[in-house]
């Protein structure tokens, strides 16, 4: 079974979830239903992915008790601001068909608009009202995390950022961990690109597992929450089958050495604008 990470407010999250970025709404229900059958109990979506309705339909079709599945969604960049964040949350909650969202994230800091502190106060209100079980951020750099912690009451439970062997952003991960913010990796496989790194395939051969399992197990052993995206049931199944083998210290170090400052695939959090972004 999938291990759980305890967030700074005591809420626990399954360490492996299914990401549905770029899954069209029409196929999202089928993709998520299959994942729930395979044992996934954590799904990560966003208003900007335009597939919250598909996620909600899958949850209902699965027949699983509501408290068995951890659901994350995110505030669209253009909805930042106190009142607009509260309105956008209602739209997400309606699209998902849920009373309570497990984790709500500010999708990008959008520093040029300087609205994320005000937005965070709306998130604190949603938390106080019990509409969400935890609040967090995504794509926040250390300076954005520091500012929220300095100016607001609630420390984010999670920062979800691009994090994979060839692009680790260790400064962001460590700044969060020092403040009690759990690290969550999006594109944990480097959107598939890290799977071919020779260090990864060598460890895969040694352990008799797939390259994806090597990378995801590397994340798990570092305490990171991961949300690999796959629409393929066989790959979905191997992506949560991470708890019957482990990487040695040497194998971990071999993957560690893949880090590069040039490995970013997604948008740059420092400059991502209000309406356009990747992931
Ligand atoms: P697919 O959806 O066809 O399985 P990331 O989560 O880092 O963004 O990576 C997602 C990409 O990696 C998708 O293109 C996905 O394709 C592919 N992928 C996901 N899991 C695996 C796996 N176990 N083996 C190979 N490719 C995978």
UniProtKB/TrEMBL annotation:
Residues the record marks as site: Lowers pKa of active site Tyr: 74
Chain spans, region Disordered: 260-279
Bias (Polar residues) ranges: 269-279
Residue span, NADP-dependent oxidoreductase domain: 23-259
Keyword Oxidoreductase: yes
Binding site for substrate: 107
Residue runs in coiled coils: none
Family per similarity comment: Belongs to the aldo/keto reductase family.
Protein name in UniProt: Aldo/keto reductase
Species: Antribacter soli
């Amino acid at each position: 079974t999938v291990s759980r990470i305890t967030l700074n407010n005591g809420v626990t999250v399954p360490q492996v979830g299914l990401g549905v970025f770029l899954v069209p709404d029409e196929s999202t229900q089928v993709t998520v239903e299959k994942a729930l059958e395979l044992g996934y109990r954590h799904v990560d979506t966003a208003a900007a992915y335009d597939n919250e309705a598909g996620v909600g339909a899958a949850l209902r079709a699965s027949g699983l008790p509501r408290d068995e599945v951890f659901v994350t969604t995110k505030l669209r960049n253009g909805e930042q601001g106190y009142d607009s964040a509260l309105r956008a949350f209602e739209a997400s909650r309606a699209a998902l068909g849920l009373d309570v969202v497990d984790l709500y994230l500010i999708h990008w800091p959008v520093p040029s608009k300087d609205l994320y502190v005000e937005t965070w106060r709306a998130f604190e209100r949603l938390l106080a009202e019990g509409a969400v079980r935890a609040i967090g951020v995504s794509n926040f750099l250390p300076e954005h995390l520091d500012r929220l912690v300095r100016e607001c009451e609630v420390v984010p439970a999670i920062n979800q950022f691009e994090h994979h062997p060839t692009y680790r952003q260790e400064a962001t991960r460590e700044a969060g961990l020092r403040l009690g913010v759990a690290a969550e990796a999006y594109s944990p496989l480097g959107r598939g690109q890290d799977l071919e790194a020779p260090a990864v395939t060598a460890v895969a051969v040694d352990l008799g597992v797939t390259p994806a399992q090597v990378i995801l197990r590397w994340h798990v052993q570092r305490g990171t929450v991961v949300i690999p995206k796959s629409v393929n049931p066989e790959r979905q199944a191997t992506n949560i089958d991470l708890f019957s083998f482990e990487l040695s210290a040497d194998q971990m170090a071999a993957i560690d050495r893949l880090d590069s400052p040039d490995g970013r695939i997604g948008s740059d959090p420092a400059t991502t604008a209000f309406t356009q972004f990747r992931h």
